[in-house]
Design brief:
Helix 1 crosses helix 3 (71-81). The protein has one domain (10-197): 3-Layer(aba) Sandwich (Aminopeptidase). 33% of the residues lie in helices and 31% in strands. It is an alpha+beta fold. The strands form 2 sheets. A 5-stranded antiparallel β-sheet has the order 1-2-3-4-5, with helices on both faces. The longest helix is centred in the first third of the chain and has 16 residues, at 32-47.
Length: 203
Protein backbone atom coordinates (compact mmCIF):
# COMPACT_ATOMS: atom_id res chain seq x y z
CA UNK A 1 0.00 0.00 0.00
CA UNK A 2 1.06 3.64 -0.14
CA UNK A 3 2.98 5.30 -2.95
CA UNK A 4 4.77 3.24 -5.51
CA UNK A 5 8.02 4.92 -6.34
CA UNK A 6 11.52 4.37 -7.58
CA UNK A 7 14.37 3.79 -5.12
CA UNK A 8 14.15 6.68 -2.62
CA UNK A 9 17.09 9.00 -2.25
CA UNK A 10 18.73 9.46 1.15
CA UNK A 11 19.71 12.93 2.31
CA UNK A 12 22.13 13.72 5.16
CA UNK A 13 20.51 15.51 8.10
CA UNK A 14 22.48 16.96 10.99
CA UNK A 15 21.36 15.29 14.21
CA UNK A 16 22.49 15.66 17.80
CA UNK A 17 24.91 12.77 17.36
CA UNK A 18 26.23 13.91 13.98
CA UNK A 19 25.02 13.63 10.38
CA UNK A 20 22.50 10.93 9.53
CA UNK A 21 20.91 9.90 6.27
CA UNK A 22 17.11 9.98 6.20
CA UNK A 23 15.15 8.65 3.25
CA UNK A 24 11.46 9.05 2.57
CA UNK A 25 9.84 5.91 1.18
CA UNK A 26 6.49 4.22 0.80
CA UNK A 27 5.10 2.39 3.82
CA UNK A 28 5.18 -1.42 3.72
CA UNK A 29 3.01 -3.86 5.64
CA UNK A 30 6.07 -5.02 7.55
CA UNK A 31 6.37 -1.49 8.99
CA UNK A 32 3.06 -1.72 10.87
CA UNK A 33 4.51 -2.69 14.26
CA UNK A 34 7.17 0.04 14.26
CA UNK A 35 4.77 2.66 12.92
CA UNK A 36 2.13 1.77 15.50
CA UNK A 37 4.62 2.22 18.33
CA UNK A 38 5.90 5.48 16.85
CA UNK A 39 2.36 6.86 16.69
CA UNK A 40 1.52 5.72 20.20
CA UNK A 41 4.61 7.21 21.81
CA UNK A 42 4.50 10.50 19.89
CA UNK A 43 0.76 11.05 20.14
CA UNK A 44 0.72 10.33 23.89
CA UNK A 45 3.73 12.53 24.67
CA UNK A 46 2.93 15.62 22.62
CA UNK A 47 -0.81 15.62 22.04
CA UNK A 48 -2.39 13.94 25.05
CA UNK A 49 -0.36 15.25 27.98
CA UNK A 50 -3.40 17.25 29.16
CA UNK A 51 -5.53 14.12 29.62
CA UNK A 52 -5.66 11.76 32.60
CA UNK A 53 -4.11 8.31 31.98
CA UNK A 54 -7.46 6.54 31.54
CA UNK A 55 -8.61 9.22 29.09
CA UNK A 56 -5.35 8.89 27.17
CA UNK A 57 -6.05 5.21 26.65
CA UNK A 58 -9.42 6.04 25.08
CA UNK A 59 -7.93 8.75 22.87
CA UNK A 60 -5.22 6.38 21.64
CA UNK A 61 -7.78 3.84 20.47
CA UNK A 62 -6.09 0.71 19.07
CA UNK A 63 -2.66 2.33 19.38
CA UNK A 64 -2.81 1.84 23.15
CA UNK A 65 -2.01 -1.80 22.31
CA UNK A 66 1.00 -0.95 20.14
CA UNK A 67 3.36 -3.00 22.34
CA UNK A 68 1.01 -5.99 22.51
CA UNK A 69 1.94 -9.33 20.94
CA UNK A 70 -1.73 -10.18 20.43
CA UNK A 71 -2.26 -10.72 16.66
CA UNK A 72 -5.76 -9.20 16.95
CA UNK A 73 -4.31 -5.96 18.31
CA UNK A 74 -1.59 -5.89 15.66
CA UNK A 75 -4.11 -6.45 12.87
CA UNK A 76 -6.36 -3.66 14.11
CA UNK A 77 -3.43 -1.23 14.24
CA UNK A 78 -2.40 -2.18 10.69
CA UNK A 79 -5.96 -1.50 9.52
CA UNK A 80 -6.04 1.96 11.09
CA UNK A 81 -2.68 2.89 9.52
CA UNK A 82 -4.11 2.15 6.06
CA UNK A 83 -4.60 5.24 3.88
CA UNK A 84 -4.33 6.09 0.18
CA UNK A 85 -0.88 7.57 0.86
CA UNK A 86 1.40 6.43 3.68
CA UNK A 87 5.03 7.56 3.76
CA UNK A 88 7.71 6.79 6.31
CA UNK A 89 11.01 8.47 7.13
CA UNK A 90 13.75 5.92 7.69
CA UNK A 91 17.26 6.30 9.07
CA UNK A 92 19.33 4.72 6.29
CA UNK A 93 22.11 3.79 8.71
CA UNK A 94 19.99 1.98 11.32
CA UNK A 95 16.73 1.27 9.40
CA UNK A 96 14.84 2.89 12.29
CA UNK A 97 11.55 4.51 11.32
CA UNK A 98 11.53 8.05 12.68
CA UNK A 99 8.50 9.59 10.96
CA UNK A 100 5.22 8.68 9.30
CA UNK A 101 2.67 10.59 7.23
CA UNK A 102 -0.84 9.33 6.43
CA UNK A 103 -2.91 11.18 3.84
CA UNK A 104 -4.73 11.27 0.58
CA UNK A 105 -3.91 13.90 -2.03
CA UNK A 106 -5.36 17.15 -0.71
CA UNK A 107 -6.00 15.93 2.82
CA UNK A 108 -3.52 15.22 5.62
CA UNK A 109 -4.71 12.55 8.05
CA UNK A 110 -1.77 12.51 10.46
CA UNK A 111 1.94 13.26 10.73
CA UNK A 112 4.26 12.01 13.47
CA UNK A 113 8.01 12.40 13.94
CA UNK A 114 9.93 10.69 16.73
CA UNK A 115 10.79 13.16 19.49
CA UNK A 116 14.54 12.49 19.17
CA UNK A 117 14.32 13.64 15.54
CA UNK A 118 12.30 16.84 15.92
CA UNK A 119 13.63 20.03 14.29
CA UNK A 120 15.69 18.15 11.71
CA UNK A 121 13.51 18.84 8.68
CA UNK A 122 11.87 15.41 8.57
CA UNK A 123 8.30 16.61 8.99
CA UNK A 124 8.88 19.31 6.38
CA UNK A 125 10.17 16.75 3.86
CA UNK A 126 7.18 14.49 4.42
CA UNK A 127 4.81 17.42 3.89
CA UNK A 128 6.65 18.50 0.74
CA UNK A 129 6.10 15.03 -0.71
CA UNK A 130 2.39 15.29 0.04
CA UNK A 131 2.20 18.74 -1.56
CA UNK A 132 4.01 17.58 -4.71
CA UNK A 133 1.78 14.53 -5.03
CA UNK A 134 -1.33 16.67 -4.58
CA UNK A 135 -0.21 19.12 -7.29
CA UNK A 136 0.65 16.28 -9.66
CA UNK A 137 -2.89 14.94 -9.27
CA UNK A 138 -4.44 18.32 -10.00
CA UNK A 139 -5.13 19.35 -6.40
CA UNK A 140 -5.07 23.01 -5.46
CA UNK A 141 -4.99 22.89 -1.66
CA UNK A 142 -4.36 20.70 1.39
CA UNK A 143 -6.62 20.66 4.42
CA UNK A 144 -6.16 19.08 7.83
CA UNK A 145 -7.30 18.96 11.43
CA UNK A 146 -4.09 19.89 13.26
CA UNK A 147 -3.49 19.15 16.91
CA UNK A 148 -2.87 22.30 18.92
CA UNK A 149 0.72 21.23 19.58
CA UNK A 150 1.43 21.06 15.84
CA UNK A 151 -0.15 24.37 14.77
CA UNK A 152 3.11 26.42 14.92
CA UNK A 153 4.88 23.82 12.77
CA UNK A 154 2.24 23.96 10.05
CA UNK A 155 2.17 27.75 10.16
CA UNK A 156 5.89 27.77 9.39
CA UNK A 157 5.09 25.72 6.28
CA UNK A 158 2.55 28.29 5.08
CA UNK A 159 -0.68 26.75 6.42
CA UNK A 160 -3.32 29.05 7.87
CA UNK A 161 -6.15 28.56 10.34
CA UNK A 162 -9.38 28.12 8.38
CA UNK A 163 -11.78 28.35 11.38
CA UNK A 164 -11.61 28.60 15.14
CA UNK A 165 -10.58 25.70 17.34
CA UNK A 166 -12.99 22.79 17.16
CA UNK A 167 -13.75 19.85 19.44
CA UNK A 168 -14.59 16.35 18.28
CA UNK A 169 -14.10 12.66 18.86
CA UNK A 170 -10.90 10.66 18.68
CA UNK A 171 -11.32 6.88 18.67
CA UNK A 172 -13.08 6.01 21.95
CA UNK A 173 -13.17 9.52 23.46
CA UNK A 174 -14.80 12.88 22.83
CA UNK A 175 -13.68 16.41 23.59
CA UNK A 176 -10.48 16.22 21.54
CA UNK A 177 -9.57 19.76 20.42
CA UNK A 178 -8.09 20.47 17.01
CA UNK A 179 -7.42 23.37 14.66
CA UNK A 180 -8.69 23.17 11.05
CA UNK A 181 -5.97 24.43 8.69
CA UNK A 182 -5.39 24.73 4.96
CA UNK A 183 -2.84 25.78 2.38
CA UNK A 184 -3.38 26.85 -1.21
CA UNK A 185 -0.75 25.18 -3.38
CA UNK A 186 1.19 26.92 -6.13
CA UNK A 187 2.35 24.66 -8.98
CA UNK A 188 6.03 25.10 -9.89
CA UNK A 189 6.53 27.59 -12.70
CA UNK A 190 7.54 26.12 -16.03
CA UNK A 191 10.32 27.92 -17.90
CA UNK A 192 8.96 30.31 -20.50
CA UNK A 193 9.72 29.79 -24.18
CA UNK A 194 11.85 32.97 -24.18
CA UNK A 195 13.94 31.77 -21.24
CA UNK A 196 14.35 28.39 -22.88
CA UNK A 197 15.63 30.02 -26.08
CA UNK A 198 18.01 32.17 -24.08
CA UNK A 199 19.38 29.14 -22.27
CA UNK A 200 19.86 27.37 -25.60
CA UNK A 201 21.80 30.34 -27.03
CA UNK A 202 24.02 30.48 -23.95
CA UNK A 203 24.92 26.81 -24.16
Amino acid sequence: MGLRSTRPAAYPIAGLGGPMSIRIRAYREADALAVGRLIQETFRTFNLSYAAPDEQEKLLGPFRHAHSDDPTHQQRIAEVIEAPMVLVAEDSDTSELVGVLRARPGRLHSLFVRSSHHRQGIGRRLMERLERETIQRGGEKITMQATLFAVPFYERLGYVRSTGIRSGSCFDATGFTYQPMKKTLTPPKLPSAENSRGAARAS
